[in-house]
Each structure stands twice: as structure tokens, then as C-alpha cells.
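Researcher: Next sequence.
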Amino acid sequence: MKKLTNKEEEIMQVLWKLNKAFVKDVLDAMTGDDKPHYNTLSTIIRKLEDKGYVDHVAYGNTHQYFPVISKEDYRKGFMAKAIDNYFNSSYKNMVSFFAKEEKLSIDDLKEIIALIEKEN
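Model: Next structure:
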């Protein structure tokens, strides 16, 4: 899976939400003050297509785009790479990091343990 830029990820979030969309639909669904110009957005979507994340159906001169890779598959790949790169391939190190940063409470950790015990 090829790495996405921040803007490409933002556009993929929109496409995952819409399921299928024309460039105009993606532009309309984007939020924030840094919306790209229509032509720029079209170019980025075509790059996403080149990377294998998006495909299209042609209707004359216009294209309706849709995600080829699910959000879940992307998340799995993204998280696996982040854990490899930043936590020495250790989920324990990742959870420990978030606990130390106070991003996970004791109750959160208990819920995680309960989920693990339930699955085993």
C-alpha cells in the first residue's frame, strides 16, 4: 500500500463517507478553509487512482470515483506501519505510551483487557 499525503488522506475520508462521488461532490463535502481548487482536487483524485486507492466509472467526459480500498483495510495497514516504526513492532509499547501520556484511563485499560479475555 503506497503512502498517502495528508491531503490524499483527507480526500479518501470524504470518499469513504460518500461511497461514490464526482469531483464536485468531493469538493462540496470537504470542510475547512484550505479546500483545493477544483482542478487541483481532480489531479489529486487521479493520483489516488494511480496509487490504487480509487477507481472510476466514466459518464461521457465526467468520472464518478469510488474507493477501492476500504477504510478498515487502510487503517490496518496504517496502524501496522505506525506500530512498526514508532513502537518497535510492540503493541504493549504502544498501549504503554498512551497510558503514560494519559490518553488511556484505567477504565479504558480494563475495557481493553475485558475485550481480550472475551476473544480468548
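Model: The CA atoms of residues 20 and 66 lie 4 Å apart. The beta strands are 54-59, 62-67.
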